[in-house]
Prior knowledge:
162 residues; 5 helices; globular
Amino acid sequence: MEADQLEEAHSTDVSKTIQTRLVLPPDTNHLQTIFGGKVLSYIDEIAALAAMKHSNRVVVTASIDSVDFLSSSTVGDALSLEAYVTSTGRTSMEVYVKVTSTNLLTGESTLTTESFLTMVAVDDQGKPVPVPKVMPLTEEEIRLHATAAARKEHRKNRASIR
């Protein structure tokens, strides 16, 4: 079964996951903007969901490769999180997550956060298992898939300086 699974490929539509969250007062700091740690928690959760949908397996977070906070969200904004698998290794999946904040009174939307995470599919004993390859569909997905090798190399280089 594992050899067949390695040859299998899923389109990015399989893993695409979207969530909407309301920014509430307990989620914010004294400036009424959302805590970065709260956003990170949402990002990790949606990345896991996207990776599980792609692999049909339980996954663990291997690394949060990058998080770029581009703007903030305030109380009353809606956060829309979108995630999908951009590339795969043998047992790992790179997941892209973007977060958009929308002021529900004005309708103005702003890209607030972009992130890449590496998730690993595991079996019942917690051992890594093979995952299907990914087929990008949209221009954005094709671009992120094409640049995944450079991000993987960056991860390797980062690991070598520890």
